[in-house]
Amino acid sequence: MKTLVLMASPRKKGNTFQILDKFLEEAKILEEETKTIWLYDKEIKPCIACRNCQKDHSIFGCIYKDDVEEIFNEILKSDLIILATPIYSWYSTAPLKALLDRLVYGMNKYYGEERGPSLWKEKKIAIISTCGYPVEKGFDLFEEGIKRYAKHSQLIYLGSLVEHDRGYKSVFMDEEKEKREREFARKIYKK
C-alpha cells in the first residue's frame, strides 16, 4: 500500500513528528511504502471557490500555480493518506486546512455545471494528531470534520490516533505512546 503523509506541523522534531516517526518505523517494518510531504515547506494558497477546477473533470485545474498540484498528483498515486497535525484552536494547522479546502474542490468535481466524479474515491484516510487539551475536548471537532469530509469525498476513513501533550515541562514521548503508534500502524495496514 502506498502511503502519503501530509505533515502539518511547523516543528520538524515536535510532538506530532515524534508519534508519526514511530508509526513510520512500524510501516517500514511492515514493508509499506511511505512518502511524507511537509506542508509548512510548501506554498499553499487559500481556496477562493472560483470553481475553475470544475471545468475539466480529469485534472486538478486550479488557477493557482503553487505546490498543491504536486500534492494532488501524489495523492492520486497513493492508496492511503495520513493527515498528521497538531491541533490548534480545535482544528488542524493552517496549511492543512488550506490544502483540504483546495482538495475538496480539485478532487471532487461536484460543483460545476455538470456533476462529475470524486477523483480520489475509495482512497483511505486516517489521522495522526497531538493535542494540548484533553483529547475528548480538543480533538473531537477535527475528527468529526474529517469524517464528514471523507464521506463527502467518498474516502474510506480508517480512524485516528491522537496523543495528549501535558505541557512544556513534561516528557511527551514514552513507551505507552510508542506502543499505541505501532499498534495503530498495524491496525491501518491490517498486519
From TrEMBL:
Domain NADPH-dependent FMN reductase-like: from-to ranges: 1-132
Transmembrane segments: none
Keywords linked to the UniProt accession: Flavoprotein, FMN
Lineage: Bacteria, Bacillati, Bacillota, Tissierellia, Tissierellales
Species assigned in the record: Peptoniphilus stercorisuis
InterPro entries: Flavoprotein-like_sf, FMN_Rdtase-like_dom, ISF_SsuE-like
Protein name stated in the entry: Multimeric flavodoxin WrbA
